């Protein structure tokens, strides 16, 4: 694992301080829906921005060729291995509801952050429907369990620029 307790980025949940070895850079798991070409393109564009700053990314749809990833068991195994290989999660929350696979990934990763095994989750919502609801409710209509898991393990932000800035604080 690339993480070691010492001077460096601070875990949101534990308050422990982490540093990175010179052998590898921080790795970010990009969580989000990936069922349409537009969704895959959006996740790929975020990965490209992070990679341009020498931040390694695991993007689930890059792990399989074609349009079909295989069985549910294979998808779970591949994505779980991808999450285990990462230090931080950036979760894309746009849509009328948070994608169910993304919600499951957030739940798993938040437990790892709680145990001090990972750094944080950055939840990013750029959906105008959710942003407009922020004046009505703190979490903008996001599922409260999902929002709570994110906030217990990191931060919820409302623009891609804020999300990338939050990731860079750990790089």
Q: Descriptors for this entry?
A:
171 residues; alpha/beta; two-stranded antiparallel sheet
Order of H and E elements: EEEHEHEHEHHEH
The overall strand count is: 7
Q: What is the molecular shape?
A: globular
Radius of gyration, Cα only, in angstroms? Answer: 15 Å
**Helix proportion:** 40-55%
Please report the number of helical segments.
6
Query: DSSP strand (E) fraction?
Result: 15-25%
By helix and strand content, what is the structural category? alpha/beta
Lateral strand order in the biggest sheet: 4-3-5-6-7
Mean pLDDT across residues: 84
CA(first)-CA(last) distance: 15 Å
Low-confidence stretches: 1-8, 16-23
The main sheet comes to: 5 strands, parallel
Provide a concise account of the structure shown.
By secondary structure, the chain is an alpha/beta fold.
């Amino acid at each position: 694992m690339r993480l070691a307790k010492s001077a460096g980025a601070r875990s949101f949940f534990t308050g422990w301080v982490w540093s990175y070895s010179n052998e590898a850079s921080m790795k970010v798991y990009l969580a989000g829906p990936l069922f349409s070409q537009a969704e895959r393109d959006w996740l790929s564009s975020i990965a490209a921005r992070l990679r341009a700053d020498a931040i390694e990314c695991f993007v689930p749809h890059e792990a399989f060729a074609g349009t079909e990833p295989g069985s549910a068991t294979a998808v779970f195994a591949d994505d779980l291995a991808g999450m285990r290989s990462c230090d931080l999660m950036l979760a894309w929350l746009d849509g009328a509801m948070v994608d169910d696979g993304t919600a499951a990934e957030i739940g798993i990763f938040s437990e790892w952050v709680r145990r001090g095994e990972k750094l944080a989750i950055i939840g990013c919502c750029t959906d105008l429907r959710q942003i407009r609801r922020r004046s009505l409710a703190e979490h903008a209509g996001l599922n409260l369990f999902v929002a709570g898991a994110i906030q217990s393990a990191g931060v919820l932000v409302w623009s891609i620029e804020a999300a990338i800035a939050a990731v860079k604080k750990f790089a």
